[in-house]
Amino acid sequence: MLARAFGLVGKTWKRTPTMSVEASASPRRRSQMPQQQLCHLHGSTPSQRQKFPEEQLPGDTVEGSFDLRFAALKSIGEDRVNDRELKLLLKKKHAPICYVWCDPCPWMHISQGIMKTLNINKMVESGFKVKILMADWFSQMNSEISGNLNKMRTVGRYNIEMWKATGMALDKVDLVWLSDEIRRHGDEYWPIVMDIARTNSVRRIKSVLAYYFRRRHPAWAIFMEDDKEDICFKMEKAFCPPKLAEGNPCLEYIKYIILPWFGMFEVVQKKGNGGKKTFLSMEELTADYESGALHPADVKLALEKSLNEILQPVRDHFGRNGEAKDLVEAIGECYGAD
Predict the structure, then answer these.
(1) Rounded Cα–Cα distance for residues 259 and 253 (Å)
(2) H or E element: which one contains 321?
(3) What span, in angstroms and rounded, lies between the C-alpha atoms of 212 and 138?
(4) 64: helix, coil or strand?
(5) Which CATH number fits domain 2-217: 3.30.190.20, 3.90.226.10, 3.10.520.10, 3.40.50.620?
(6) Residue pLDDT, tens place only, 185-239
(7) What pTM was computed for the model?
(8) CA–CA distances in Å: residue 125 to residues 51, 161, 192
């Protein structure tokens, strides 16, 4: 329903076959993490990221073979069209436009920062055209900034600066502001809104919109703004049941953040637990963990170290870059007392 109202606004968005490849992260620090990707904890530099393979076969383009391009999009999101439709799209259009939704958020969840960077860079490296839709229009529902669109634009620019610090290929990405699209194509947008209003109850619409603003405690997840002390505290409190891999939030962080970023996960175990070991796949790590060969305390310490390595360049950027510092101050003013 929301995709119908906000995902395809204006004729320019409708002319080209498109595919939405990534679910958005929630817009507030207390928000829920993507359920199909990461669980809450309780219940390196950009050059170190694992690169998407650039194998070139006879008749293929520099972006890779059809199979590699298909695998790139298939690996990004679970909520996608079926494989047959995706293959037909790639055969029909060599470089389809991938639209990526972003709810501007003053405290960026690690899935919004790191996972989005990984996925967008993978799409760019595979030769796809990427447009990030900055959903600033929803600021009118945000009471914390009194529905101020200019303040939400500042939040959006802060998010973009965060992606710059993580190494996102922003020079090859188009940034589109939802409020601009709605203003330019209001004659198409508002009839859709009226149609939704006629066919859905107010209660249903509120329940859908509330999903994007659901509150969660900040100690339940990792944020891009977390310092070393924050990470240490959260790892100490993190739920990591021994010999249980399914639904284990620490292992999910390793699966969706650490392994895709570094291409490996290194655990320095205590002498009595087997010593140092490097895991190159989630299957290998899961097998050791479920057998008891890998202790939860060692996993949590290694995860803490890896998260800090990922976030340190971000901390350095916002500590040294003048424009980044100004945006941090502006965010504080936006969410300060009126």
Answers:
(1) 9
(2) none
(3) 10
(4) strand
(5) 3.40.50.620
(6) 888 877 887 887 788 777 776 666 665 554 444 566 899 999 999 999 999 999 9
(7) 0.74
(8) 9, 21, 35
